[in-house]
Automatic annotation (TrEMBL):
It comes from Oceanisphaera psychrotolerans. The gene is mtnB. Keywords: Amino-acid biosynthesis, Lyase, Metal-binding, Methionine biosynthesis, Zinc. GO terms for biological process: L-methionine salvage from methylthioadenosine; pentose catabolic process. This is Methylthioribulose-1-phosphate dehydratase. GO terms for cellular component: cytosol. One of its GO terms (molecular function) is methylthioribulose 1-phosphate dehydratase activity. It catalyses: 5-(methylsulfanyl)-D-ribulose 1-phosphate = 5-methylsulfanyl-2,3-dioxopentyl phosphate + H2O. The keyword Acyltransferase does not apply. Binds 1 zinc ion per subunit.
Length: 204
């Protein structure tokens, strides 16, 4: 598959994410791996609902460097980290949805455990609602390098699979293709809404 068709799929995914309201006020950022050394990342400050393929910048995975002096998203360092840690990953979607933001604060621990939901099977490799899917939660940090170090440390102990939450901030999720990353995002957002609703009902 050429990167042009994957980029067209990513732009379509951005418009879908914008329509869902998961990236308000130009928040969030998306990326696509080009090869073992580079990826495309959304330019800073762009509305995800109206992105085009010229709103992506080519970034080096090794040092987050950009060739033409334009400014990539502030959180580029987490995208490049994911591509360095997980060679099979081809696309990363980072959203700021209400459900991811609130649930990552309501859960005080370092992990959100999802179990008992049929929709867990939207995540590649999950066969049954009886398993528990752990989604790590990292405390937010304006120092992206420091946050990236904590994510990398966690990955060495427990490899990342579908994504992770940043507390009070949002979700990073990924897949081998844009289509897989999009399915993981859709599935996780559904599961977050279920889990948040369940907790609200049980608290009454
Ligand atoms: Zn963010």
């Amino acid at each position: 598959m050429s990167y042009h068709s994957e980029l067209a799929e990513l732009v379509a995914a951005c418009h879908w994410i914008g329509a869902k309201g998961w990236c308000p006020a130009t928040g969030g950022n998306m990326s696509l791996r080009l090869d073992t050394e580079t990826c495309l990342v959304t330019e800073s400050g762009k509305d995800k609902g109206s992105l085009s393929d010229t709103d992506f910048l080519k970034v080096r995975l090794a040092d987050n460097g950009v060739a033409d002096g334009r400014r990539p998203s502030a959180e580029t360092g987490l995208h490049t980290l994911i591509y360095r840690l997980l060679p099979e990953i081809g696309a990363v979607l980072h959203t700021h949805s209400v459900n991811a933001t609130v649930l990552s604060r309501a859960e005080k621990g370092t992990e959100l455990s999802l179990s008992g939901y049929e929709m867990q099977k939207s995540l590649s490799g999950q066969q049954t609602h009886l398993d528990t899917v752990p989604i790590p939660i990292f405390d937010n940090d304006q120092d992206i390098d420091a946050l990236a170090m904590r994510v990398a440390d966690h990955h060495r102990r427990q490899p990342l699979i579908y994504g992770f939450l940043v507390r009070g901030h949002g979700l990073y999720c990924f897949g081998r293709t844009v289509a897989e990353a999009r399915r993981h995002l859709d599935g996780l957002e559904f599961l977050f809404q279920c889990e948040l609703t369940r907790r609200l009902l049980e608290a009454k």
